[in-house]
Amino acid sequence: MINNIEVERPRECLTIGRIAPDFTAVTTEGIITLSQYRGRWVLLFSHPGDFTPVCTSEFIAFAQLYPEFEKRNVQLLGVSIDSNPAHIGWLYDIYLMTGIVMPFPLIADRDAHVAELYGMVNPDRVYELSVRDVFIIDPNQRIRAILTYPASNGRNMYELLRLIDALQVSTTYGVSTPANWMPGDPVIVPVASTLEEALERGTTSLDDLTCFAWWYCFTDLSDLTPLPKP
Ligand code: BEZ
User: Fold this and answer.
1) CA proximity to 225, closest of 172, 160, 161, 152
2) Are residues 143 and 218 in the same domain?
3) Rounded to two decimals, what is the model's pTM?
C-alpha cells in the first residue's frame, strides 16, 4: 500500500534454469512431493478443469503414450484446482468410456498452491489464456522448458516427447538441436572456442563435422561420447 493506493507487486516469475519449487499435494494416487521424483524427469502440466472435452482428449492421449514417457524416465503429473473426488469421478468416467486406468497422479490443487507457485493462474484472470501450462523439470529438479497453451486447443504429445528427447540429448552430449530436429537427425556442436579451432572448422573438411561456417557445424550423435556426469 503506497499513499493508500493498492500497488500490484510484480509476481516472482519462474523461468527456465530455475530450481522447480517443491510442493506437497493430494493426488489421485495419494500424497506426493515433487522432490520425491528427483533423479527422474518430470512433466508437470495443468488443465483448466475436469469433465471438459479438450482436457479429456489430452488425458487419453497422455495415457496412450504413457509407455513412451516411461521409456524416457519421465514422470507425468497433472494438476488442476478441482477436488480429489472430482478428479476421481472424471478419471472413472474416462475409464468407463475408454477402458483406460489413468497411469499417473492428478493433483487436486484446491487452494491453488501449486498453480500460484508455478504462475499457472493468469494474473489478468483471463481464463482462456494461460490454463494449459507445461513445465519440463530435469532430474536435478531444474526447470528446462515452459509451454503455455490456451483452453481451446489441446497440446501435441508428440511434440512434448520430441522436446524431451532434444533436452535429454542436449544434457547428455552438450549439443543443441536445430529447428524441426527429430531423433536420429544431426545435432549442432558448440561454436568454436578458439581461433585455431574456428580456422580448422572453416577451412578443413573434418571427418565427423559438417560445417557451413566456423560457427555453424553439425555432427551425428553416434560420433559423440556422453559428457562426464557432474
Ligand atoms: C476443454 O477442455 O474442453 C475446455 C476447458 C475450459 C475451457 C474451454 C474448453
Assistant:
1) 172
2) no
3) 0.92
Q: Are residues 78 and 192 in the same domain?
A: no
Which parts of the chain sit beneath pLDDT 70? 1-12, 123-130, 204-206
Q: Is residue 12 part of a domain?
A: no
Please name the helix (run of DSSP H) or strand (run of DSSP E) that holds residue 31, with its range, or none.
strand 30-33
Ligand 1 lining (C-beta closer than 6 Å):
48-49, 52-55, 151-152
Which residues span the domain enclosing 72?
24-155
CATH assignment of the domain containing 104? 3.40.30.10
Given the residues 13, 55, 211, 217, the one annotated as active site: 55
Is residue 168 in some structural domain?
no
The answer to the question of residue 230 being in a domain is no
In angstroms, how far apart are the furthest CA atoms of the chain? 70
Q: Which H/E stretch holds residue 213?
A: strand 210-213
Q: How confident is the model over 33-57, as pLDDT tens digits?
A: 999 999 999 999 999 999 999 999 9
pLDDT of residue 1: 44
- Could you confirm whether 55 is annotated as catalytic? yes
